[in-house]
Fold each of these.
Amino acid sequence: MSQTVHIIDDDVSLREGLDSLFRSVGLKTRTYGSAQAFLEDHDDTPGCLVLDVRLPGLSGLDFQARMTALGVALPVVLMTGHGDIPMSVQAMKAGAVDFLAKPFRDQDMLDAVAAALARDAERREGAVGIEALREAFATLSPREQAVMTLVTSGLMNKQVAGHLDLSEITVKIHRGAAMRKMGARTFAELIRMADALGLKRP
């Protein structure tokens, strides 16, 4: 799916300038005069936000802070005409990819947007990966799930057998079945999968 750069700025000339800059390098764009206009139009298309810190209504920094609560997970590049250090630190702590003071060089903006788009793509790939792991884990029998959880928490087969009141050979069979169904080529990979799924020993 192609990525979209969402530009939120109440300055029409800057908004149009950024729009043509991004389009000149082949990026898709959408422009908004306020954070509210973006929220009314927003869907979960891949991309990033280029956001002015000073916006009418909901300011850029306030909007960035509230984004998670509002269900917006897009990476943010913030720009300001009043850039001060505390503000940029606050922005970066809240997860901004970059903070550019106006006037900025076109190349700096393009670099920041490229980094934001890469971050969004990574996040989406990670989300897809976790979903696939959950689906694979759901195909395991309750016994296989229990064995996988215990062996990946560091217990030996013998200890798992004691925990679950099984023979050691049965534990090995369940462990092998879990690895096969999860698509884990090595035990180390199975441990990483269990970690990603947040499996914890009861």
Amino acid sequence: MKIILFFLISVVIFSQNVNVDDSVEGNLNITANVIANLTIENSNMEFNDIPLASDAIAFTDVDIDGSTDTQDTVTISIPKTIQMKDGEKTMTLYLSSEKKEKLVLDENGKGSVKIKGTLNAEDTTVIGDYTGTFDVTVKYD
């Protein structure tokens, strides 16, 4: 009983020393810079006739248009390979980019990246007209 009474008296004494009405106010500045959406424009990647047992290389340019008056950095993503098809037949296209993954847009918010495609027509590749598509993703860092 003495322990409980001591506890209650301690709670009352300590609770009287806490003043919850003291408060502090401050201001925070908030800024936001709304920028233009990125757009991309590209031309088709076209290979000429490819003889069997040979390699072929083709390029395409991807033009990027972003926010003006800033030199933003963007990340570019492409697949490393895609499967081109002619009906049930497939052929692997190997892709790479000259800019790797990062590109700094110029002062007008523009930039360009060259994408390289390589096809290996093995002597066992089935003759045909192969087509395919791949996604290019560009985003602000």
Amino acid sequence: MPHILILEDEPSIAESLIFVLQAESFAVHWESLATKALAHAQSQPVDLIIMDVGLPDMTGFEACKQLRKFSEVPVMFLTARGDELDRVVGLEIGADDYVVKPFSPREVAARVKAILKRTRPIAALLEKQPAQENLREFVIDAERKTIHYHQQLLQLTRFEFCLLQTLLEQPERVFSRDQLLNAVGVSADAGYDRSIDGHIKTLRAKLRAINANADPIKTQRGFGYSYQPEA
């Protein structure tokens, strides 16, 4: 039975989510403070966290940053703010989905099931892969979720790690924006396809800071992006 942690300070919203999720056979735990939710996530197995952005003790964005220091559990943000910038920030710090209030609890439950369907097979696959995978100039450590480039550790967000790993594992394959979103566990119909461009730009800057003469991530105009190994 998947375990869902809800971090929401409005009891009426939390109760409606608990009712719908339990009806879908999820085990649900509710906290109204980020500090208590983070402590629970550290001490108990959690399959997904539904996290409000506006919380009494810290923002959901800050809570997600702290969570990512010890866990890669999927996160769905709930927020009254629907600005594109807020959605992009949420994805950049490691969120898997972003739902704007008011929302249908049943839609949230459907999104939870979709995220778990995408992320659980990926997690199982990573467990079967070698701990480290050498790709010439890159070294991927699947267990520690790290990537080294020319023997230097890249400081990556969860989204950037998954995006770069997807490109590296299939050299020269051209991925569309929608394919990259699906590969990192974000629904392609969520409207974030152009955010891929921003993440690619950030990744390129981090790679060039190590090797200014190389450009391993290629833009395939009209199609998407690919990884071209260095000669």
Amino acid sequence: MITENTKAQDNSDQSGQTLHIGKSLFSNEIKRNFSRKGDFYVHWGYNHSWYGKSDINFKGPGYDFTLKDVVAHDRQSKMGWEYLDPGKLSIPQYNLRVGYFISDNYSISIGWDHMKYVMDIPQRVSITGYIDPEISTPGIPTGDYAGTYNGEMIDVKADMLTFEHTDGFNYANIEVERYDDIWVAPSQKTSLTLETGLGVGLIVPRTDVRLFGVGQNNYFNVAGYGVSAKAGLKFYLTKGWYIQNTTKVGTTKLTRIHTTGRNDYDKARQNINYIENFFAVGFQF
């Protein structure tokens, strides 16, 4: 027997056809007069992100060391009208998502979260492992940083390391979302909806690194994977157009980070936990 708390709400449209409106977690006196099932949606927006402290391991010929509890921040672009230029839309930290409603209140989607991760330089961190006087192939001199370390504190400066995923810390993901109407206007078109979701995907950074002065802005590569959860509000201005603000939390594992550009020899690895908040404008059709 299906209870009132779990069954779909059956409404009729003007033609008399039965509409199956998903049961909301909230009590609404007014219900939508249309179902979202079968609709697509697309949105574009911009984000801020915050990162937990991360251990970064660097490994290659003549070195294997880990920097502990590294602090990093995102890098915001100053917003301006110039970003309405289609050629510049992807410069700031942006979010692109396309989805499909498999039922009135559930959708599946694919998205690209373009965040940026920049290690603070200089900063003082703990270090373990070893660094030879010359590392990599061909050799890179390490100067006063050479040695064996067992948790000592070290001042990381630009002559030792710069490290950032600025083109960027990209999360290519698939998400499953649920929608619960909080409020529906008398027009039955305008509404405020709670969106929640879970995601999984690949981390595809373009990492810019200088290790003891040697490195490059590396090519994009699949460096690892991540999982995420999100919750946010979608305000439907009409049946199609909406604005959205969502907060996402995620954890990632990167095992194949490019560093000096000598990818057969040198690499890095790290786990990154993050909080991301984005604002987007979208259309459902």
